[in-house]
Amino acid sequence: MLQPPPAEPGMREEEVDTPALLLDLDAFEANLDAMAALLAPTGAKLRAHAKTHKSPVIARLQMERGAIGQCVQKVAEAEILAWGGIPDILVSNEVVGPRKLARLAALARISRVAVCADGAEQVAAYEAAAEAAGIRLPVLVEIDIGAARCGVEPGPPAVALAERIAGSRHLIFGGLQAYHGSAQHKRSPAERAAAIGGAAEATRRTVEQLRQRGLDCPIVGGAGTGTFPLEAGSGVFTEIQAGSYAFMDADYARNESPPPFRHALFVLATVMSRSIPGVAVVDAGHKAVAVDSGLPLVWERPGLRFAGASDEHGKILVEGGAAPVLGERLRLVPGHCDPTVDRYDWYVGVRRGRVECLWPVAARGAMA
User: Does residue 218 contact residue 234 with C-beta atoms inside 8 Å?
Assistant: First the structure.
């Protein structure tokens, strides 16, 4: 059920009802501008990943700064973006099931949509759905470049699948999906460079083998916030699928030489108990902030450490500095921004301590 907004424009930040998903607009806009500037000299284009923000509003702001489209992981996310007017969407994932495929094909009437495949059975299902809808559906071949999750083997197996797609009257070979997810959070620059170096070389060989078979590769997509300079500088990747850069989170900040973006996304929490000396309890626990990538950080309050969570409570240890008082608002930096966003119905956009806007998290819970 859609929850009422926790704030109104013009409110002071300390008046916002909590827990709330807070977006620092100055930092957020600086991140969008920074990514556009970093990619401009490389020739690679941004296809920002909407699984992070789940918002047509944010997608439009990214595209105003040069993003060529958006990618998503689910058909439901693609629907929200297409209904919100986003004209170019890639489902950077495999889609299985006739009902989902019918929904995907229907979106082709209002947006350019594409999807990924890593097997012949999927291609056959895409072909049937496209034929039933009377469309030609672009399909990218996903190759496994190190994630060991989805993807066909680079080289001849990928080329064979591409030829199967290109030979269909109802499909269009759209290129390669080559995302190395686990490389994003390898802590040292050397580890990240080694992982992406191998991935880029496998992708390069596959592109060349496709060319030898007479197949152009219009899209070579992948990369993320942790490695995008490597893919963009490789000369192989044409599209960068970073998402978290818009917000940053605590786990990316733990990388050595972290991405050059500012923390813009916070969970605003209220101190609800000070009954135990040296402990402050806030109203943000597991239901308010994702902890799969570590506990959140307390923003700009040295000496305060978020030490644990239960469903509705967050335990903060006072280890130095000024202790928070009952009712005080604290900003928490989530460890993982994507699933944290999915817990909320609204972004509360703030600028210099005042609420400026409220944006719906339109694709919240879009799992199908």
Answer: no
Three-state DSSP state, 272: strand
Spell out where the chain has E strands: 20-24, 45-49, 69-72, 88-91, 112-117, 137-142, 171-177, 219-222, 239-240, 265-273, 279-282, 297-298, 304-309, 314-318, 329-333, 346-351, 354-360
Alpha helix locations (H) across 173-306? 189-212, 228-232, 250-253
pLDDT in tens, 125-161: 999 999 999 999 999 999 999 888 999 999 999 999 9
Domain ranges for the chain, please list them. 13-22+260-360, 26-246
3-class DSSP state of 346: strand
On the question of a cis peptide bond just before residue 19, with omega within 30 degrees of 0, the verdict is yes
Task: Indicate the burial class of 300 (C-beta count within 10 angstroms; 0-12, 13-18, 19 or more).
Answer: exposed
Distance separating alpha carbons of residues 344 and 30, to the nearest angstrom: 23
> Which residue, chain included where needed, has tokens 């893919």?
231
Fold (topology level) of 26-246: TIM Barrel (3.20.20)
Q: Is this prediction's pTM over 0.90?
A: yes
Rounded to whole angstroms, the Cα distance separating 49 from 197 reads 22
Comparing CA positions, the residue from 220, 143, 231 lying closest to residue 183 is 231
Level-2 CATH architecture, domain 13-22+260-360: Beta Barrel (2.40)
